[in-house]
Amino acid sequence: MNTLSIRDLCCLFCCPPFPSRIAAKLAFLPPEPTYSLHIANIPISTNGAIDQKPSSSSSTTKTSVTDINTSVRYTIVFAEKAEWQHSQSDISKLEPYFVTTSRHNRIACLYVNCTSDPKYYILFSHGNAVDLGQMASFFIILGTRLQCNIISYDYSGYGASQGKASEKNMYADIEAAYKSIKQRYHVPESKIILYGQSIGTVPTIDLASRHSECCIACILHSPLTSGMRVAFPDTKRTWCCDAFPSIDKIHRIRSIVLIIHGTEDDVIDVSHGFALYNRIHIQHQIEPLWLDGAGHNDIEAHGQYVERLLRLIDVDIPQILLKKQQQQEQQQTLSSPPAPPTLASTLIIPASTTNGTN
């Protein structure tokens, strides 16, 4: 996290309308874009406008997909700084498109088609200082390992997305990306897993807390409780000027929540993970993963990371679904009216008759 200047501190405590400026200073570090999206071989610049000439530093490998709202087709071109040695097979798995948020920003989304028969669809909100170009190779590896397809997006001001990075834009960004999963790919809520990493846990928690049935599970990777608590670790309450108050939202999530956090995280201390876990509704708590010795940026290098995700998909979620099914069946049984009593059939035997003779 960046340090706060005296001016920032004055704005924070004396001028409540300005915390968004501090939040941007603390949390948002958009990198130089590592990719571009093209429409009919004309590149789309990082602010969503159409450039006249393609970048000479970009790779010529492309993939295309139909836009969510129109018949326009896009291609993705990786710049050299993406530092990804991709194959044509990998490229064919990537489908970029744009969506427009409720705050009128056009943001870039990427559908990673890892398998033709996915167990689930993961909406991945990535961490800070990266964009889709840097994350694409990781998405392919992770999705293939988990047998899930992944949809991700760049926050406003990141990559090829329009606008500026802000807390409100971030909430609108994930909402638009989430709606695109349902509208574009017709995926039901029961097949969606929300995944947030670092700053990406902020919109993930917000979305899940506002829509109780939006996903089957929620994964929080190195989450933060709030902006103030990161900047000032001794903060014990949420102030009116606090940004990213996930600690006050997480109890409203109505899907199971998996928290993954490194014990040696020097960016967002593991105590944030502990605090959030303790605020999850007890019915939705599942075994977290506290990775001993892991920091903020190396959790994926530990074998327990994928193992825990596989257990979530193959064990935890099926158990939850079975439990829900049993509860529904029990409720149906209790609410069903009792069956009318059944009268036993009576066998009538006619009395024997005699002819009156001996």
Automatic annotation (TrEMBL):
<dbReference type="InterPro" id="IPR022742">
    <property type="entry name" value="Hydrolase_4"/>
</dbReference>
<keyword id="KW-0564">Palmitate</keyword>
<feature type="region of interest" description="Disordered">
    <location>
        <begin position="328"/>
        <end position="358"/>
    </location>
</feature>
<dbReference type="GO" id="GO:0005886">
    <property type="term" value="C:plasma membrane"/>
</dbReference>
<protein>
    <recommendedName>
        <fullName>palmitoyl-protein hydrolase</fullName>
        <ecNumber>3.1.2.22</ecNumber>
    </recommendedName>
</protein>
<keyword id="KW-0378">Hydrolase</keyword>
<dbReference type="InterPro" id="IPR029058">
    <property type="entry name" value="AB_hydrolase_fold"/>
</dbReference>
<dbReference type="GO" id="GO:0010008">
    <property type="term" value="C:endosome membrane"/>
</dbReference>
<feature type="compositionally biased region" description="Low complexity">
    <location>
        <begin position="328"/>
        <end position="347"/>
    </location>
</feature>
<comment type="similarity">
    <text>Belongs to the AB hydrolase superfamily. ABHD17 family.</text>
</comment>
<dbReference type="GO" id="GO:0008474">
    <property type="term" value="F:palmitoyl-(protein) hydrolase activity"/>
</dbReference>
<keyword id="KW-1003">Cell membrane</keyword>
<dbReference type="Pfam" id="PF12146">
    <property type="entry name" value="Hydrolase_4"/>
</dbReference>
<keyword id="KW-0449">Lipoprotein</keyword>
<keyword id="KW-0472">Membrane</keyword>
<feature type="domain" description="Serine aminopeptidase S33">
    <location>
        <begin position="117"/>
        <end position="226"/>
    </location>
</feature>
